[in-house]
Request: fold
Amino acid sequence: MSKKTVYSFIILTATILLLAGQCNAPPTKPPPKPETSFSLELSQTNIEIRLGNSKTITVTIKPINGFKEDVKLSLVGGTDKIKGVFSPNPSTGSSTLNITIDKTTTVKTYNLFVKGKSTTSDKSDTQALSLKVLPLPGITVTGIVLDNIRRPITNAVVSIAGKVASTDGNGKFRFEQVKTPYDLIVVLNNPKQAHIYQGLNRPDPYIYLTNQFQKTGNSTNVSGTLSGGDGFPNKNETITVVAYASDNGRGAYTVNPFAGPNYGALKAEWYGNIVNSGKLHALQWKRDTSTNHKPLKYLGYGTTEATLKKGVNANYNIELKPLATATISGNLKLPSGFKLVGKVLFLQLGKLTAIPVVIETTNDPTFSYAVPNNNIPIGVQITATKGAQTIHSYRSNLKPTDIVNFDLTSPPTLLKPVNNFKAVGPGTEYSWTAFSNGIHVLGIFSQSNSTPSFILYTSKTKAILPYNELSKLGMNIPLSTDYSWLVSGLAPYKDIDSFASKSGGLGVFGLGQDINWGISEVFKFKTGD
Reply:
């Protein structure tokens, strides 16, 4: 057999065997049908929303292998103050997700998830969504309006950037979304006044109306008998002062030489509730026989708790215990050309109560006074003048044996408008020299309670009244009307925010605070026709 015949035989045999094998193989199965499903796609995966606002994104349901089932969508991972609403829901194609943020939501970044689940099978998908909650633009301002002795003023109109509110029963007010720095206006109708704070940044201002004294509202008479001390009646050149003090009340009565042991009637006054709790103090001292009657020696001090009720006379006896005497001294430095006209030593018995024990009118730049050697806080007031300008300087919370140094600062000097200017109107700029380390209070006063006056608080040395805002509040300056103006400087305050703090303000004649108070001369002007 030739090689060619052999090869043909082998090929033929292999072909036959291959065909035989195919005839014996099982039939071929069709490939499995692809599984249907879906995936979610978000138009945005990182979003920012401010408090009280909302935002919309699109959620697309992307079918896989012909998926046609309805998908129920949900937003998870937030709080009950983050609301997500899908429309439509369920959906087979796309849905709009609207996310709303409540104003009280905590400001932070939330890791949320958009979930989708088939309504007819267990098919599902989840996509992450990062939500950053932003604060409102500006700040929330929550403040309080107070009079000169820190009592709340109710029903006062307060305005910031055109928004208006009224103070509540506690003198408080609130504004949201305030851009800083901001100006604040308080309007009073009796007397008719507008107080303007310029350049505030703080969210919690204490708005002190420095020339407002409200009536205390409650009062009663207190009498009683004194004992102890150096004995009673008072001897020659010996006096006893009885005073009532509480956080919101005051009153004093002087028992003169040769008088006592009975005192009264002391008129106690307070604001707030008709029942008031405080203390009665009695201090006895011997004076020298000079014109100024400075104390030589303290003879006794006593105190007793007192609960007073409006209109009901009270009787309290006070026993005075022996009291040691110490000495407080000091030195004064006045600006050039200023003359010392007064020195006052007082004892701080309460927030609203002080007993003056020395009133001296000499021009001696030093002082040395006898003071009671106990825990009663001591205060000293210095007054100096130059022409029509005045400086008051207060030092408070002093202790016996303290040495006090006063370095008084020149008050502001008025620049423009010049005295007796005849055409003041909208746009008039007021200017003055700076008060060292302090803020300025511009006072523009009418001659009538029915004509508006303006008090503006600023750290700058010039100001223009905000006429547009004032006119919207009914505080237009009348035409052809006489006014006077002056500027006070108050220190130490670095800016209006520090003045409008809980520990700021002018205080009650310096009680509890160290204050330099410079008062300019007074200029006059007339508004234009």
